[in-house]
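Q: What structure does this chain adopt?
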Amino acid sequence: MPEDIIGDQKAYLQEGMAVMLSTHNGVPIAIELPARVTLEITETEPVVKGQTASSSYKPAMLSNGVRTLVPPHIQAGTRVVIMTEDGSYVERAKD
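A:
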């Protein structure tokens, strides 16, 4: 599949992932990923004293190389659910 069709969503593709592929005359024209993926936090900044979990977020690097913002209680090694549409944090993974 041409990279220009996948675009920024390429970072969220995973081995064995089910996707919707739209074609026209046998040529791929669009791809739709699942709404959410589970990834691991590889690095994050330490909590700054005085931050509260409900109102502030800190930067973190995901295992696919994408940066996102996570709540202060999330540490490196934690698996989290991410929205593929915008790369935003949803919740801690339940697995």
